[in-house]
Task: structure prediction
Amino acid sequence: MPVKGIVELAASTVRFGEGAVRDVGMDAAARGLRRVLIFADPNLTERYPVQAVRESLEREGVAYDVFDRIVCEPTDASFQEAIAAARARPYDGFVAAGGGSTIDTAKAANLYAIHPAEFRRYVAQPHGEGAPPPGPLRPLIAIPTTTGTGSETTSVAVFDFSELGTKAVIGHRYLKPVLALLDPLVTGSLPEPVIASTGLDVVSHAIESLTAVPFPERELPDRPEDRPAYQGSNPVADVWALEALRLCRKYLLRAAADAEDLEARGKMLLAASFAGLGFGSAPAPCHVLPGFQPRQELARAGLPGGPPSTTARLLRRLEHARRGAVPVARMSPEAAGRRRSAGHR
Result:
């Protein structure tokens, strides 16, 4: 029987629980890391989890430096600055504590610091050459502080290519963090709009990976090592995507409504990583579209993400859908009449 397709899932190790961040020093030391560079969200350098990371590294005798010039929605220029910092000293590994922008910045810095090249060399086509790295990178430990991107379990780094005015991607399995520490305690300071927006990102990731072109319909590469990060929807990714959607349905509204509901916010951290495990091997087609359209046009269309008011409206719609109570005002008069006749309010 002919082989119709092959899919591979290369996953980061995931550790979950309150206080998990405090394990980072032990993990760094166990991997033989003597000096690391911490990539930190600038808003967190004096707060949990970055302070806990520092204390944990010091406790285990691991030297460190901190790079906190992270740009929200990183650009090629901000990547270049981070790459220069990663090259400044002979680091044995890296730690990223922040949202997707921080983790993606650390991935790019790790790649270009270890395997220097002209910037477009590793940028995916059509914006770059799409060349694979010549070998493995240094260990990267990721500590996500938002509940949406799933970057801690994916092998891609997304950025704004300023020269071209588009989104672009650097992707290869070597970029994937070796360890993701999911700590619900990092989410307590996140405001409702951030939890809501990033939670909807999880929903999008999961749906997109489930509905991507199936892997048997994609062309097999000549060599296994040339297999792309995004291979098409597949049975393994489906398991993670479906579980991510289940968690979102149960916990997203709770997580957005109550900063002290660490159970719900912790479950959303898991949902983000689960969705990342899904779309990390199955592509996220809607997320790819912005890379082929100038950001100015997307901004005029309101597509790069909505303001808090938009997010709030989306959450209200989600709550109505969960209850099966679609607002009558949004229906046609005929549909509203039929709903009233059926006894719905």
User: Anything to note?
Assistant: Strands lie at 13-16, 35-40, 63-67, 93-98, 140-144, 156-161, 166-171, 179-182. The first strand starts at residue 13 and ends at 16. Residues 27 and 71 are 27 Å apart (CA to CA). Residues 235-257 form the longest helix (23 residues).
